[in-house]
Design a protein that fits this description.
By secondary structure, the chain is an alpha/beta fold. It has one domain: Alpha-Beta Barrel (TIM Barrel). It is 33% helix and 16% strand. The protein has eleven helices and 13 strands. The strands form three sheets. An eight-stranded parallel β-barrel has the order 3-4-6-9-10-11-12-13, surrounded by seven helices. A two-stranded antiparallel ribbon has the order 1-2. The protein has a two-stranded parallel ribbon with strand order 7-8. Helix 7 links the parallel strand 10 and strand 11. The longest helix is centred in the middle third of the chain and has 21 residues. The structure holds flavin mononucleotide. Flavin mononucleotide binds next to strand 4 and helix 10.
């Protein structure tokens, strides 16, 4: 038992959270001008969750190049022009007591609007997706650099932490999965090399005391996908490369096979987070149907996870954190904006 409750503060390096709730990254597909720049939708969406008492907001998958987006309506960080609108969100989130990070990503073969997506190897996701082209070795090296450039811009926008997206079948996941990386250069001989180089490059642009988060699919669900043991070894490699906090998800690499299909039930990925935490002795964020307040509080108290991330629950209720803390007997008033106290 950890003794932690949803309203227990959390600290790692220079990051201090008012409680243990995290808004999981969620693509909004709401960029209107194909320019990747955050607009009023993103501003209201993220800052209202800051008012709602959440400890850490993680801004949706934000991409390192235009053709690295799932769609042209996704956010970008490939230019300094992206910084001001993000900074406005960050500053307002801070004014309401939340900390805020951003998920930096490339969709790889899952980039739907790219004329021809790029990937570690020329293997399509399935027959409904475009055929990707394999990146040359030089292009992979350049890709590492643009992840670093995007990180530099995120730091300039004032984000408190960076999350690298190594999950859900996107580019970094494609590199470390044996099914999608059949390269014969150094990036195919060592499947974690790309991710480890991106981690090192990102850290060059981050302040010493800023923790680096990494989201990973700790296991795959396709027929010949990797299991939790391989997922733990991936986590080990990324931790050694400099990751501070692992955000444990699963799947996204393809259509789940009948026998591996995950059960849709509360905490369906919690045991994966627990397995990583236990094997490597590191702090983790668990995610996946954790929006029942009592279930979430129990997951924290059991010591299976250090933080609770919620995605869809926060689409339904921007005040989920306050309500969950209230329902589980915590000091919810400390999280309610003063102007709203009379509502309670
Ligand atoms: C609308 C939507 C968009 C999402 N976009 C992202 C994303 O940008 N990056 C990511 O890692 N996961 C993304 N996810 C997955 C969520 O972060 C989360 O892992 C998943 O929804 C399970 O958590 P939940 O049961 O609390 O919704 C998205 C989920 C939803 C519902």
């Amino acid at each position: 038992m950890s003794g932690f409750t949803l309203d227990t503060p959390f600290a790692m390096k220079g990051l201090q959270l008012r409680n243990r709730t995290v808004m999981a990254p969620m693509c909004q597909y709401s960029v209107t001008k194909k320019d990747g720049i955050a607009n009023e939708w993103h501003y209201v969406h993220y800052t209202s969750r800051a008012l709602g008492g959440i400890g850490l907001i993680i801004v949706e998958m934000t991409n390192v190049e235009p053709d690295g987006r799932i769609t042209d309506q996704c956010l970008g960080l490939w230019s300094d022009d992206h910084i001001p609108a993000l900074k406005r969100i960050v500053d307002t989130a801070h004014a309401h007591g939340a900390k805020i990070g951003i998920q930096i990503a490339h969709a790889g073969r899952k980039a739907q609007d790219a004329a021809q997506p790029v990937a570690p190897s020329a293997i399509a996701f399935d027959e409904t997706y475009k055929q990707p082209r394999a990146l040359t070795t030089e292009e992979v090296r350049a890709m590492v650099k643009i992840f670093g450039d995007a990180t530099r811009r995120a730091v300039e926008a004032g984000f408190d932490t960076i999350e690298l997206h190594g999950a859900h079948g996107y580019l970094m996941h494609q590199f470390h999965s044996p099914r999608t990386n059949t390269r014969d250069d150094e990036y195919g001989q060592d499947l974690t090399l790309f991710g480890r180089e991106v981690i090192a490059e990102a850290k060059k642009h981050m302040p010493e005391d800023m923790p680096l988060l990494f989201r990973i699919s700790a296991l795959e669900y396709v027929e010949d996908g990797y299991g939790i043991d391989y997922g733990i070894e991936l986590c080990r490699a990324y931790l050694e490369a400099g990751v501070d906090l692992l955000h444990i998800s699963t799947g996204g690499e393809g259509t789940p096979s009948q026998d591996k299909r995950p059960k849709v039930e509360p905490g369906f990925q919690l045991e994966a987070a627990h397995a990583v935490k236990e094997a490597l002795g590191v702090p983790v964020i668990a995610v996946g149907m954790l929006d029942d307040p009592h279930f979430a509080a129990e997951a924290l108290a059991s010591g299976k996870t250090d933080l609770i991330a919620v995605a869809r629950g926060l689409l339904r209720d921007p005040y989920w954190a306050i309500h969950a803390i209230k329902e589980t007997g915590g000091d919810f008033r400390a999280h309610v904006p003063e102007a709203y106290i009379r509502g309670y």
